[in-house]
Write a structure and sequence with these properties.
Blueprint (H helix, E strand, L loop, with lengths): L1 H12 L4 E4 L3 H10 L4 E4 L1 H22 L12 H5 L7 H13 L1 H14 L27
Parallel strand pairs: 1-2
Helix pairs in contact: 3-6, 5-6
Length: 144
């Protein structure tokens, strides 16, 4: 990445306003070092992967926390919980509704992941609105 910024040169690099990248720390570090004026926006694929992993951790923690009959809502529901609602069968949608109604922690975690999944994607050249702090390493500049 440093070679890219060297090739681009300081004049062009200083005009960069937004960098879209994955969450790999070396990419972020070079971007912050070479183009400190630019906002860094993480790509949606990696955000969704991390949200899915976090949701699965909540599912596992809730299963471990609960005992007896309370576990029945969670057992065997990993696919149901981590799938996009549109990809679920009618039975899967019913299971998801029951699971989320039965467990407030999973419901909250699911709502957080679902809100990011339904967030719009932005094409290159389009200015996104200010993104939630959870997905931006730096503030997104306003469009002019």
């Amino acid at each position: 990445m440093a070679q890219f910024y060297a090739w681009l040169g300081p004049r062009k690099t200083s005009k960069i306003r937004l960098i879209v990248t994955d969450m790999w720390k070396p990419f972020r570090n070079v971007a912050q070092d070479k183009a400190p004026q630019a906002a860094i926006l993480f790509d949606k694929f990696h955000i969704m992967r991390h949200l899915g992993e976090a949701l699965d951790k909540v599912r596992k923690a809730e299963y471990a926390r609960l005992r007896g009959k309370d576990r029945r809502f969670i057992k065997g529901q990993k696919y149901t919980l981590l799938s996009h609602r549109d990809n679920l069968t009618l039975a899967g949608k019913r299971s998801l509704t029951l699971l989320l109604a039965a467990n407030k922690r999973l419901n909250t975690a699911y709502l957080h992941s679902d809100s990011q999944e339904t967030a719009p994607s932005f094409a290159a050249g389009c200015c996104p609105p200010p993104a939630p702090r959870s997905i931006c390493a730096t503030p997104v500049p306003a469009c002019h």
